[in-house]
C-alpha cells in the first residue's frame, strides 16, 4: 500500500508493524488489572492486587492469591512479563512476588535475605536480586 505525501510516494507497509504493535500495546495497558486463569470449564479473572505471589516447582506454576491457589499453564517468565508493570518482583528463580504484600525483609546473614509477606509466608530473596530490589525500594 502506498500513500502520497508532499508530492512524493511513501511506503506505508513498512510502518504497519509498528502501528499494530503500538495499538496492541496501548490496548494491553488499558486492560483491567486482572489475570485470567483457566479452571476446568471457566476462566477466573483474579485481580492483580489480590495476588500475593507466584511460585514454580518442578513443572507446575501456582498463583497464590487471597481467593486461593491456582495452577496455571503459563511459565514464571510469562507471568513476570505480564505482572511486572503491576509491582511484581522476581525475588528468586522460583518466585514472583507482589511487593504490595511484602511486610518486611529479614536479613539472615551478609548475603541471605527473606521477604516476609503480610500472610507470614516467607519467600527467599536471591543474593543476585538484592541490588535490584534495593534500587526499586530505595533501601
Can you characterise this structure?
This protein is of the alpha+beta class. It has a single domain (about 30-135), classed as OB fold (Dihydrolipoamide Acetyltransferase, E2P), CATH 2.40.50. It is about 20% helix and about 45% strand. It has three helices and twelve strands; from the N terminus they run ββαβββββαβββββα. The chain has helices at about 15-30, 75-85, 130-135; strands spanning about 1-5, 10, 35-40, 40-45, 50-55, 60-65, 70, 90, 95-100, 100-105, 115, 120-125. A five-stranded antiparallel β-sheet has the order 7-6-5-9-8, with helices on one face. The chain has a three-stranded antiparallel β-sheet with strand order 10-11-12, with no helix packed on it. The protein is elongated. It starts with a strand and ends with a helix. Mean pLDDT is about 80; it is low at about 1-25.
Supply the key terms.
single chain; 139 residues; alpha+beta; OB fold (Dihydrolipoamide Acetyltransferase, E2P); 5-stranded antiparallel beta sheet; 3-stranded antiparallel beta sheet; 3 helices; 12 strands
Instruction: Estimate what percentage of residues fall within beta strands.
Output: 35-45%
By CATH, the architecture is named: Beta Barrel
CATH structural class: Mainly Beta
**In total, how many beta strands?**
12
> Treating each run of at least 4 consecutive H or I residues as one helix, how many helices?
3
Shape: elongated
Helix-strand sequence: EEHEEEEEHEEEEEH
On the 0 to 100 scale, the average pLDDT is 81
By secondary-structure content and strand pairing, the structural class works out as alpha+beta
Low-confidence segments, given as residue ranges, are 1-25
Give the proportion of residues in helices: 10-25%
Strand arrangement, major sheet? 7-6-5-9-8
| CATH homologous superfamily annotation | LytTr DNA-binding domain
CATH topology descriptor: OB fold (Dihydrolipoamide Acetyltransferase, E2P)
| Overall tally of structural domains | 1
